[in-house]
Amino acid sequence: MSINNCLGHLRNLCLLLLLAGTVSDVNAQVSDSTKSDTASKAIRNSRIQKGIDPVIVRHLTQQPYISLQQMIKGNAAGLYVQEPNGEPGTEQFMYIRGLQTPLLSKKDLYAQQPAVYLDGIPMMPDNNMVFDIQPTDFNRIGPATNLLSVVEADNIESIKVLKDPAELAKLGPLAANGAIWITSKVPRPKRNDIFVNTYFGAAFNAPVTPVNAAYENSWRQPFYDKYGTLTNRLNIPTYLKDSTDASYYGPANWTDAYYKTTPVYSINAGAAVGNNPRANVRFSLNHTNSASGQDGSKFHRYGFSIVSDLKPFPWMTFTSLVTGSRLERDRDKNVRDRLAEVRYTPSLLSPLPPNKQYYQKYLNVFTAPGTGAIDNNIVNDIKALAAVNMSPIKQIKIVSQLSIAYNENIRDAFWPTFLLSGNNFTSNYFGFNQRIQLDNSISYPRRLNKDMNLEVEAGQSFRSDVQRYDYAYGYNTPSDYIKVRALKNDPDNGYPVYNFQYHYLATDKQKIAQSSLYGRLHYTYKDFLEAEALIRRDGASFIQPNLRWITEPMGNIKWDVEKSGLIKSAVLSSFVVRASYGVLGIPYNTDLYSQGPVYVTTGLTWPQDPTIPSFLGSGVAAHPYTQGWIGYGIDWQKAYKANLGVDLGFLKERLMITLDVYNNDNKNMLILLPAARELGYSGVYKNGMAINNKGLDATISFRAVQSKAVNWTSALNFNFNKNTLTALPDGLQSVIIGNRMLKVGAPADAFWVFENQGIYNSLSDIPTTSSGRRQTFYGGPLNPGDPKWRDVNGDGDINDKDKVLKGNALPKLNGGFSNDFSYKRYALNFMFHFAIGQKLLNQEISNRLNFVNNEGNADLNTVKEITYWQKDFTITDYPMYNPWSNVIPYQSGQDLFLQNASYVKLRSVSLSYDVLGKRKMGGISKFLVYVSGTNLFTISPFKNGDPELVNYLGNYTGYSQKIPKMAIVGARLSF
Amino acid sequence: MIKRFTIKDLALNVSIVLLMIFSFSCNKKLEITPEHAYGQAVAWNTMDDINSNFFAVYALFRATMATNNDYLLWGELRGGDFASVQRADLKAVIDGNLNAPFPQLDEMRDWRRFYAVINAANLFIERSPEVLKKDGRYTQALQLVDVAHMRCLRAWAYFMLVRIWGDVPLLTSSYEGQFPTVARTDKSLVLGFCEKELLSAMDYLPFYYGGSDPIQSGNYHNYDFSRFSTTIVGRLGAYGLLAHIAAWQGRYADVDVYAKFVMDYMSQGRLTYSTTADITASNGVFKGRGQVGSDNRMLLGFTLFWDHGETGTSGFGHIESWTLATPYVAKSVPDLYVPSDSITLMFNDPQDQRFRFDTVQTSVVDSTRRVVAQGKYIEPSTFFSATPMFTKIKVFTSGKTTDLFAVFGSNIMFSRMEEIALLRAEACAAIGNTTDALSILNGRRANRGEAGYDAKKDGDLIDAVFMERRRELLGEAWRWYDLVRYNKLKRTNPAFNKLIDQGGIYWPVSTAVMEANPLIKQNPYWEGK
């Protein structure tokens, strides 16, 4: 058993450390640092320092946020949260201090998510193995639920965003991308409380302008008039042809069925028993319902949480935590998402009609009794912690902690025949992710002399992750009433009796283990100087055996200038300077690289059908030609993080400023590099890419007004980040991967596009080369009506060499600005969130204008949803090219569609009234009522919608639901 | 009592901490054998490894053909009989604008997938001997057959590469883990290599697998003849390839010899000719293993077999995904159709079973209002529409004629007996052996209900042979290669001569290929086009 093994080591470790203590000085005295703090808090925070960027939790509990990402968005400098979709419970992503690795696939996005800890339990993210069998990555198969929606805001004591190497080093490689540290509420000492917190309200959306086929026709017509041939004119799409067709030409009122103000509510109730000094417990039950008000999308959460502290002996504390949640999701009815899941594309020639009467028929199919759709999306999540904190021998402190994080993801989908041109589809997904982690540490604080203290600490941890999924899908059950795969076999020949046409099965599993050891020296001089040195050894199963272990050092120094007495000022009330530098290994979230060259069974088919596992019924295995060659020597990726910070307080801390400048280098990063195609591989995995993020985090808070009755505090946080790709493997200067170019010295999130300079109106406009040849586009001649793309290298041909790197997908500047006013028992808070300096590629408009190539196309990137029928662009904003041209004038890869995506949002407003104040009434100790509004307005130069709704590649596709506005009324009661 | 802090204490503390860190680790628990991919150490140990590696080469080859229906882009569309209104990308290929910037065409210009086949075959040749020592079930005799098999697949891949790109790099080692950049080798050397390989493999190739052929008898890779039918490369397939390699080089005397071998020994290889009904039936030649009843029809080709779950729902690998429309599938206009002019030109025999007009009717009605009497290749009701539908190959799922569930089950046929016979007729005509050419041609024509060759109506014998190939093999990805051979023989079309002389008959290579290997230069014809 792994645990036993490690425990064995731990025993040795303890002995050695005891020995060390004995040898140097057993009699040294130390103050009992645990006395002042509650023991459980000390455990749960034992691995992090106090102070850095705590999110103001009070504001969260008055907002209908359902995910961790929403709670911390805009609340901490250096953290950027983007919600790519307003549909509640869908995946959301975080970036701490910039891009950690270029986003070439969704796996890269998963790989750079920060680690999230709940009271020290490292939460377990979902697997990324499913992308191996998905031809598209719009949504992952399975419930595709945001696993960080399990946290109930009401149970949170504090949230900290960790980004300083001084803190991350203690957490190890898992936290190499930064970490979020959540601490649960514990009972207040000497009190028993019963609490009920609840809100209800509604999700709603700003109205859109629905349009019908007449509108569509009217903007398309000029193209036909100007450029269309007779054939083109005869060939207009069927749904636009017949102006008497009420489904397309009737009133455009689909919005009545699509946008609906939908209730949202939440209740969290429980008790906190804290009046026994030897044992306390807090438990709560919660239920939350959220919605987007669009397409019937809803989110439900049912959860519980129990935290308890026992103190069996004065020198020992036992803490346990169990929290569980069940998440359910009613998903959108997007055609694109469904077809991607079904992997079978029927005719797309007739989009959903904009008329409500006809659209409703489509909606009714989902809910038809007996024959309707099944769309169950369930996540069961459970986390448990058992921790012992003891000092059996005076000063020595031993902390031992076992964490378990487990979630299972279930999806059953059935789409009746109507939705799939007469074929139905059924599928079942079950996946689980399990993490067990054991942490042990022993520390020995010693007073060296009257000014100096030295704490010696050693620790060890072992992490074991298991991820697995099973997926089966098939088509054409005997009827829409039968929604599972028919299993009855013909006894004579073994074939299924039912005409169940086709089914696929897929399953995958991976195990990852990581073992860590660290030693730490913490030195303090008087009360103003702290120095810390930490060295760790980490070994992980995802690295090949000969490179498995790495050593990572960290050093940290903190000088309280004010306390040291160096500066004396009436204005300055605090002044701390911090500096830290540390190295951390960046883990792989796959075991694919752990054994050198591999043989795979997936990806040996054409890309659209990746699950076909055989030839003539015999299983196949070959090197991963499509995925890329994995060789020996794939090493740890490493993060080198340096941070210099200053904490300033003025006027008795009335004005507080925290500034951090950082320089983070991710080196030896792995990338799939193109390699000679003549070996058959799409590329070869190589370490050696490096990416630098440097920037500034600032948090400024100012109590503008402070008096007994009136208070006003203003707080601003922002991050300015500059991202640069600093190296590629083999000394390459640039590399083209798909639609992206990575170039040393350029941002890793730059778009690679043609520069649009207008239109060629006549033949004479089109430049010719010195040899008299007309300018070409990839060898084909340009004609009047074609775009004028800049010929960067001047060779008379527009091709890849004329594409330029422009803009960046992640913001240069982002942050939040919040204000708290209070007057007597009233409190008002509002908060802005802003992201500035990023661009998006407007694929939605590109798709619209490229109607000639997209009409009837089976490309899922161009599927028309019901939301296609809205007025969201102005045709005159774009040049009028010949849409029939072979050069595809409206292709998205040009700066015509590269648009400014900066935004400022009023994220929340909340007004509360403390009914009782300090009084008590009939056993009620606290009664607070509030009204809140969320996501009330957005200011942005972007015209087509919310610029935040872009996918990870920076493309605005228009397929996402809008982030809804919400208004709620809530109450918080304590007895 | 307060003790003074000494450096000694610090040093001791530090060293103990360091000692602990470096001396303990749970290293053993980090030895986890991944389950979703397996490593070098276990890839070549048992007979089962041999089986999966063996069939993987076929799977890769099949993927090479099927991806984006590239086998049609390479062989059928350019200058061929199909037209497209809806799909600008397909139209570009039909018109020979092979450099057109459609993302869908990128794969067509990239030869990587062929080299994946070649690499996997090289690897099999290099590593299969290891299994001989480790697993007694793998015998030397079987290994020799397998290696010969791999050499055929490799030669086949190279032949296809040369047909498409002309000069291509010749790699005969897997270079496991290395990525050398190799320059193009002259096409005649590559084809010379292919021919040599096939000839030297020949002695180890049985006529058929999983039966009682003296070279290979009993189950082959776990299965008997009923599993393979004639779909994996046997001796006749290798001769068929040799014939095509020779034909591509214009060595028609050799073509005659090689093709004659196939025709002479077809019954040994258990192959037969097909009737028109066999060819056009949904459960006929183009379904799965290419069997009609127990008759085998596939000389060379790739199965995408519904019954084994090897037909994807995307439709790729099946011409039906482009050629069918309503009422067969929910698509108003097919992506590819055969213009009625081409049909009229091709099917000019009044008794042709594949497609003919009712000659009795034409005498009474206006000639433009002809009645289709027999429409096996073209859906009769669509002939008079703007987009006549090509229905020769129309296999739904496991061989149904129609199905709402538009998943197709057709195979990718490279060669069948008719094809090889007409190739021999072409060779005989080219070398002046008119007697044999005529007898083969007329034999094939009779089999389709046509009258015998008539110089007045059919013109030159070579023309007639190529016209018969055009009719017979429509939709089987031969048209472009036939055009090249025809024009090399005749040299009567100046525009085509220019293509031949300037290398325009070859495809441009993708930028991905050139970026990754600086020794590869664009085919000069496509430079700046």
**CATH architecture tag of one domain in chain B:** Alpha Horseshoe
Mean pLDDT of chain B: 90
Number of helices of chain A: 16
Give the helices and strands of chain B as they follow along the chain: HEHHHHHHHHHHHEEEHHEHEEHHHHHHH
pLDDT average of chain A, as an integer? 89
**What do we call the CATH homologous superfamily of the largest domain in chain A?**
TonB-dependent receptor, beta-barrel domain
* Gyration radius over CA of chain B: 28 Å
- Number of strand segments of chain A: 44
Poorly predicted parts of chain B:
362-366
Q: What top-tier CATH class of the largest domain in chain A fits best?
A: Mainly Beta
**CATH fold topology of the largest domain in chain A:** Maltoporin, Chain A
CATH class of one domain in chain B: Mainly Alpha
CATH architecture of the largest domain in chain A: Beta Barrel
